[in-house]
Amino acid sequence: MLTKRIIPCLDVKEGRVVKGIQFVSIRDAGDPVELAKFYDEQGADELVFLDISASHEGRETMVDVVRQTAATLAIPFTVGGGIRTLDDMKRILRAGADKVSVNTSALERPALIQEGSDYFGAQCIVVAIDARYSEEDSTWMVYTHGGRNKTPWSAIEWAKEAVRLGAGEILLTSMNQDGEKSGFDLALTKAVREAVTVPVIASGGAGHAEHFYEVLAQEVDADAALAASIFHYKETSVAQVKEYLREKGVAVR
Amino acid sequence: MKIGVIDYGMGNLFSVEQALKRLGCEVIITADEKALDTADALLLPGVGAFPDARKRLAETNLDQYLQKAQRENRPLLGICLGMQLLFEQSDEVTPTKGLGFFKGCIKRFSGSQEGQAYRVPHMGWNELIVTNRPAWLHNEVSAKHVYFVHSFYATDIVESELVAYADYFGIQVPGIVMNGSVTGMQFHPEKSGELGVYLLEQWLEGVKAC
């Protein structure tokens, strides 16, 4: 039986992890490779690196981070942030990442999804969607630039279009829930999960282990759940979340 | 031990190279037959579509080389698409003949089983269930899951060639197959944590014993 995946996310800026300062057991908590190893040992099923570098140099550094991580880690990892062209995808995937995630760049030029999928296969292409509920539209709409710009796409329609173009997985973040620690957006996740045939990773809102159960259990049935700060700040650990899920009868590794 | 990774332009070779190096192997990544002749074992990687991969193997004559290697009983491990290429045929994109070291056909997951819809690709960690334990896989380990990511799988296989499978919505997905000196792994051992490392290690032990 396929297990549900728990995925810590690391924000990396100019080659350094930001918000990763709470680990006492790690010598250099800003080192993405050290943190990746830590999460691997904790039982993380995958990792996501989000490159939030503003500079060209920062992105070049990310390629080195990917190479070092791939040389160390024996679990899959995805890299997102700043990937705008097929060449960007090639650089990251050839450095050893398993998947790339695209967000704004795919909304600006949806053909990017198809180009990546044709070249590397759908399994390498994750489309990240930032969604926020809009009273005006009575549905979740897709936003770019960290939630500032509203697009004409509803989350459900964009997810379907992304899959049609060749996305192998959807990373779905609720802008409403993000940072709230009050749980994942279950209605949004369920709606998108039912609209597409590829795996859906729920993101935004994880506060404790029960939240993972809610979004992964049969009712919503997300394939994976992603969190950042609650793992970084040791409010809970990957191992604790998995133990809780196991007790609740959810298949985990 | 020297492992010759067959470079025919398909797949993420970096991860598998690193995994083998961590296990103390010397790794050469090449399409050069003379160089491959010096390897103790061959590894056929692969990510992408079956017809493209098959075409590239033919263009580089590496398919002939692999046929010869199989006749000479040289250890060969195919991973993911590299395993699928070892079968008789695949239906991916268009029916295409494989290398034929294993009987069976590569088909797409239909996406529904007995009226129940399931996800394609089969992506994530699934439990590996051993059916026929080969000599090189002697020990049990506590880890049970390996990392799969694929939309096509081997069907109509010979039961005696199946080493281990994963259950995906009632479908028996061949995970490890073996026939003589040829082994195939559908999952990515280089991405499968503790069990993946163990399986690679044990396969290498098997190579040593050859």
Provide a count of the helices of chain A. Answer: 10
Corresponding CATH architecture of chain B: 3-Layer(aba) Sandwich
Oligomer: heterodimer
Radius of gyration of chain B over all CA atoms, rounded? 16 Å
Overall average residue pLDDT of chain A: 92
Termini separation of chain B (Å)? 12 Å
Count of spatially separate domains of chain B: 1
**Count of β-strands of chain B:** 16
* Strand and helix order of chain B: EHEHEHHEHEEEEEEEEEEEEH
Biggest beta sheet attributes of chain B:
8 strands, mixed
Number of strands of chain A: 11
Q: Termini separation of chain A (Å)?
A: 10 Å
The portion of residues assigned to helices of chain B is 25-40%
Report the CATH superfamily of chain B.
Class I glutamine amidotransferase (GATase) domain
Strand order of the largest sheet of chain A: 1-3-4-5-6-9-10-11
* CATH topology type of chain A: TIM Barrel
Overview of this structure, please?
The complex is a heterodimer of chains A (253) and B (210). Chain A is an alpha/beta fold and 253 residues long. Chain A has one domain (5-247): TIM Barrel (Alpha-Beta Barrel), CATH 3.20.20.70. Chain A contains ten helices and eleven strands. Chain A has an eight-stranded parallel beta barrel, surrounded by eight helices. In chain A, helix 1 packs parallel to helix 2 and helix 6 (155-165) runs parallel beside helix 7 (186-195). With 210 residues, chain B is of the alpha/beta class. Chain B has a single domain (2-209), classed as Class I glutamine amidotransferase (GATase) domain (Rossmann fold, 3-Layer(aba) Sandwich). Chain B has six helices and 16 strands. The two termini of chain B are 12 Å apart. In chain B, 52% of the residues are buried.
